[in-house]
Amino acid sequence: MRAATTFLFTVLCSAATAADPPPIPPILTVARVEKDRLIVEAIRPAATVRETDVTVIRNGQPEVVKQRVTVTLPVVEKNSIALKGVKAVRGGKTLAESELAELLAEETPIVVSVGPAPEKYRKMFKDDAIFVEFRPQSQQ
């Protein structure tokens, strides 16, 4: 029985690892085009050290001391990507670089996805939403 359980576990695990990883949900962000570059904002967590007042007990008496603590804060990064080769879709139609540059002359909300965004996410947006698709790293 134990050998059968081990075999079944091995088969299930190998089948799970052989499949493609689950799709990454698209991200809503803002972008603009400057010359031949697509400037996309990304928010990521960043560890920061801050000094704070902490009450400690010393010799039975509360005392306020300064202590350094690490906190995680959101940080906005601006990433610059070459406009050439960026795949953008609006209303089911692929946009040319010049069209995308015109639409993103000012900071504009866009939807960024790795590969084509699945239909279940696309239907959450109006037809005039701009989807920017990047190739998965395995295809680059």
In short:
The chain is an alpha+beta fold and 140 residues long. The chain has three helices and seven strands; from the N terminus they run H-E-E-E-E-E-H-E-H-E.
Mean pLDDT: 83
Q: Taking strands numbered 1, 2, ... along the chain, how are they ordered across the largest sheet?
A: 3-2-1-6-7-4-5
Q: Estimate the global geometry from the Cα principal axes.
A: elongated
Through-space gap between termini: 45 Å
User: Main beta sheet: strand number and arrangement?
Assistant: 7 strands, mixed
* Low-pLDDT stretches: 1-18
The proportion of residues in beta strands is over 45%
The helix-and-strand class reads: alpha+beta
* Number of helical stretches of at least 4 residues: 3
What is the N-to-C order of secondary-structure elements (H for helix, E for strand)? HEEEEEHEHE
Radius of gyration: 24 Å
Give the beta-strand count.
7
Q: Helix share of residues?
A: 10-25%
How would you characterize the overall build of this protein?
With 140 residues, this protein is of the alpha+beta class. It has a domain of 84 residues. Helix content is 20%, strand content 51%. Strands 3-2-1-6-7-4-5 form a 7-stranded mixed sheet. The longest helix has 17 residues.
